[in-house]
Amino acid sequence: MIMKAFTYSHEMTSINVPEFLSYLPEKRMLYAMDTYFRESWEDFSQHFGDPKTIVSNLAVIVFKPEAIAGRKILESLDFLKQYGFYPLAAKSYINSRHIYRELWRYQCNLVKREQLDIMDLISDTKSLLVVLRLDHNSEFPASEILSAIKGPANPTLRKPEHLRSMLGQTNKLLNFIHTSDEPIDIIRELGICFDYQDRNSLFKEIEKGNNYETPLRELVSSLYETYSFYDFSARSIFSIYNDITKKCASDPILISEITEFMRNIKNDTNWRNILNWLNERNIPLSDWDKIQLITNGKDFLPLDGIKRVFPVQRDVQLLF
């Protein structure tokens, strides 16, 4: 039997997604059938009398668990002030394997299985979603401008002026932040991370239009008190190795095994082998140390020969 390629049509959905939400027609078509988007868009458009103006001036930045542990939130917000972004609302949420996969549903076809599995290791930790507003008019939506400021996840493709460069991100997986690409993604991601009550609470804060910096700083302080500090810049593979050998100094045989293990770690493509080896020997490492080790030197490049669901985001040449 010959399998025909599946195509989407307007007959498959009951809603019309406005062009101002996305410049990509195929994206609008898919999201029109996406439960998270549909629920969130219905709530948003009913709450705001002029949803086009509101959503076009909004941007969303998510501070991932490593940003909380690495104390990267406040310096990021200060960095974004110079480009005219100020906070309107914020709320934390608990990560899960389902949230990770839904946020990246339309990119997961490009991602290797190990990347998703490794992210599961930091499930049940918190992320912080902050809704920002751009204080001036622009020909592009605020969300696209923020994505341009953020910079690529791949350190080799970034410029010094990018936010991720300022944050000192060198690990291609632990990149501290996520931003919604377009207005349509803001709506969908609010639908993924929050239920109706929490979304409505955020909408009310957005409607006020006030600078949310003071309550946001209090929220950040609370998160910092909950999660221990981890210095991602200082905890290189070499420093982790030194720490292990000091803690295991009384066991020369184990130190010899650790030395050999660390020498070959980059050659082991199976991260589970690394994690199992550490756990079986009760090596005294924090969870973040273990994640640093198993992601060390990995590129996490997209799978070869796989077509994107959507085209690459358009290039917003406004800043650099």
Automatic annotation (TrEMBL):
This is Nucleoside diphosphate kinase-like domain-containing protein. Pfam families: NDK (PF00334). Residues 60-196 form the Nucleoside diphosphate kinase-like domain. InterPro entries: NDK-like_dom, NDK-like_dom_sf. It comes from the Bacteria.
